[in-house]
Each structure stands twice: as C-alpha cells, then as structure tokens.
C-alpha cells in the first residue's frame, strides 16, 4: 500500500521551468517536493499530498490536519509536543 502524506508549502522554486519544486513542511520535517505536474496552481501556504517526492494534489488545510492526526493515531507520525518542540 502506498501512502500520500499532507504537507504545507513553505516556499516555491520555479527557477527551472521544467522542474518546479517546493520546500514542504511535513509536520516539522521539511523536504523538497516536485510540484511540476500538479493539475492546479499552488502557492506558499497551500497544503499538498505528496508521495515519494512528488506532489499529487492540493488539499485544504482541514483535510490535511485531519489526515496528520489520523497518521499520529496510527503511530506513523510522532505525537505533537504541546510545548511546540
């Protein structure tokens, strides 16, 4: 089974017109994700679903947060630290 994980775009790099990339925050882990082939335009602050370095779709913030909480409950993400760390 494949799992797509929600993350929030924190910056977009479109300096290479053939490979548009974004820095994406996955609940505290930041990584580069290809956003070149998304069917819709995304901007900083949008949430996306990503799998193996590729953005699959844009999702709304509420859906992203619900999915992240479900992943935490399943033990696939660490619990959030109430102190913010």
Walk me through what this model shows.
Strand 2 (21-26) and strand 3 form a beta hairpin. The protein has a five-stranded antiparallel beta sheet, with helices on one face. The radius of gyration is 13 Å and the shape is elongated. It is 15% helix and 38% strand. The longest helix has 13 residues, at 61-73. The chain has a single domain (5-73), classed as SH3 type barrels (Roll), CATH 2.30.30. It has one helix and five strands; from the N terminus they run βββββα. It has 85 residues and is of the alpha+beta class.
Strand content: 35-45%
Low-confidence stretches: 81-85
The residue fraction in helices comes out at 10-25%
Shape: elongated
CATH class: Mainly Beta
By DSSP (H or I, 4+ residues per run), the number of helices equals: 1
Class inferred from helices and paired strands: alpha+beta
CATH fold field value: SH3 type barrels
Strand order of the largest sheet: 3-2-1-4-5
CATH architecture: Roll
Domains (count): 1
Calculate the mean pLDDT score and round it: 88
Order of helices and strands: EEEEEH
Determine the oligomeric state from the structure. single chain
Q: For the terminal residues, how far apart are their CA atoms?
A: 31 Å
CA-based gyration radius: 13 Å
Q: Summarize the main sheet.
A: 5 strands, antiparallel
Q: Give the total of beta strands.
A: 5
């Amino acid at each position: 089974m494949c799992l797509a994980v929600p993350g929030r775009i924190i910056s977009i790099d479109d300096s290479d017109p053939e490979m548009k990339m974004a820095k994406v925050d996955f609940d505290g882990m930041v990584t580069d994700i290809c956003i070149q082939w998304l069917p819709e335009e995304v901007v900083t602050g949008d949430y996306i679903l990503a799998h193996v370095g590729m953005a699959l779709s844009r999702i709304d913030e509420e859906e992203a947060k619900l999915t992240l909480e479900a992943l935490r409950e399943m033990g696939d993400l660490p619990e959030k630290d109430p102190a913010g760390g």
